[in-house]
């Protein structure tokens, strides 16, 4: 079962949504699940058997996964069930200020960050039978974490919006009233990756989505096809042609609304 729910309107720009995943029967058990590079930070609450990470270790029941510059492999077990909440870079700056620099490429135990009692309460929320109730309670929790807008966060948000549109770091810095060095510092402090990495990951995802869904230009933002191929190999460890030959994974083929689940290869 794969189900997506949007966040409350007050969280728009901060939380991308909530994704419910359930494989109690173990259809995908012991099969590698590859996720794509992402600038999002992912909060995951396991109410079934937790996944295993690419190093074979069991992931925490409640975790935070920082931005991932390259693809990553996971292994699910029979009895898998969890809900994910994805936060934008700006959302990370507002919801977990000061933590982003430690999370990039890392998977952290949520209890170690917010306390085991609070993490346990979130797991109790995720265990509710009604998904609408879970979404409502997660909306309330995220809303309670939203910090007051600080000038640096507002500048970072303005730069991020411009960077997402055209990828020009200098223009994004000027738009936000920052120097390039200041923008670099804020980006590393809030999300742990550079403005260049943010744009490169977003460009790659757009290219991948165009290939996955068969619409859009997979070369958009790249100098040429060779540039696209190099980026795919660097961040996905495969080329567009190899992906087309291999076909999409079983997990992606099992998803009824694929545009809501572009984080799976």
Indicate the percent of residues in helices.
40-55%
Beta-strand portion reads 15-25%
Largest sheet entry = 6 strands, antiparallel
Distance between the termini: 17 Å
Q: Quote the CATH topology of the domain at 2-145.
A: Jelly Rolls
SSE order, one letter for each helix or strand: EEEEEEEHHEHHHHHHHHHH
Give the overall shape, derived from the CA principal axes. Answer: globular
Whole-number mean pLDDT = 90
Number of strands: 8
Structural class: alpha+beta
Detail the poorly predicted runs. none
Number of helices: 12
* Spatial order of the strands forming the largest sheet: 1-2-7-4-5-8
CATH class of the domain at 2-145: Mainly Beta
Radius of gyration: 18 Å
Give a short synopsis of this structure.
Helix content is about 45%, strand content about 15%.
Task: Walk me through this protein's architecture.
The chain is α+β, with helices and mostly antiparallel strands and 265 residues long. The protein has a domain at 2-145: Jelly Rolls (Sandwich). 45% of the residues lie in helices and 16% in strands. The protein is built from twelve helices and eight strands. It has helices at residues 89-95, 100-103, 110-114, 116-126, 131-145, 151-166, 169-175, 180-191, 195-213, 225-236, 240-246, 250-253, and strands spanning 2-5, 15-23, 32-35, 41-46, 62-65, 72-75, 80-87, 107-109. The strands form two sheets. The protein has a six-stranded antiparallel beta sheet. A two-stranded antiparallel ribbon has the order 3-6. Helix 1 (89-95) runs antiparallel to helix 6. The longest helix has 19 residues, at 195-213. The chain is globular. The relative contact order is 0.15. The mean pLDDT is 90.
């Amino acid at each position: 079962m794969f189900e997506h729910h949007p966040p409350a309107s007050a969280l728009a720009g901060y939380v991308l949504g909530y994704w419910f995943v359930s494989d109690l029967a173990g259809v995908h058990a012991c099969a590698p699940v590859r996720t794509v590079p992402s600038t999002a930070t992912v909060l995951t609450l396991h109410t079934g058997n937790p996944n295993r990470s690419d190093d074979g270790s069991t992931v925490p029941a409640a975790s935070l996964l920082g931005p991932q510059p390259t693809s990553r492999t996971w292994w699910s077990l029979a009895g898998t069930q969890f809900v994910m909440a994805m936060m934008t870079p700006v959302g990370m700056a507002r919801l977990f200020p000061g933590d982003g620099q430690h999370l990039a490429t890392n998977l952290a135990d949520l209890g170690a960050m917010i306390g085991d009692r609070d993490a346990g309460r979130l797991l109790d929320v995720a265990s509710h039978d009604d998904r609408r109730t879970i979404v409502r309670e997660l909306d309330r929790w995220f809303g309670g974490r939203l910090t007051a807008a600080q000038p640096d966060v507002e500048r970072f948000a303005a730069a991020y919006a411009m960077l997402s549109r055209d990828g020009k770091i200098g223009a994004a810095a000027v738009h936000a009233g920052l120097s390039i060095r200041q923008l670099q510092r804020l980006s590393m402090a809030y999300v742990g990756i550079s403005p260049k990495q943010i744009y490169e990951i977003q460009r790659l995802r757009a290219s991948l989505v165009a290939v996955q869904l068969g619409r859009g230009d997979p070369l958009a933002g790249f100098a040429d096809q060779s540039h696209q191929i190099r980026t795919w190999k660097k961040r996905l460890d495969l080329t567009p042609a190899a992906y087309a030959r291999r076909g999409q994974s079983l997990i992606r083929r099992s998803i009824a609304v694929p545009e809501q689940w572009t984080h799976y290869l």
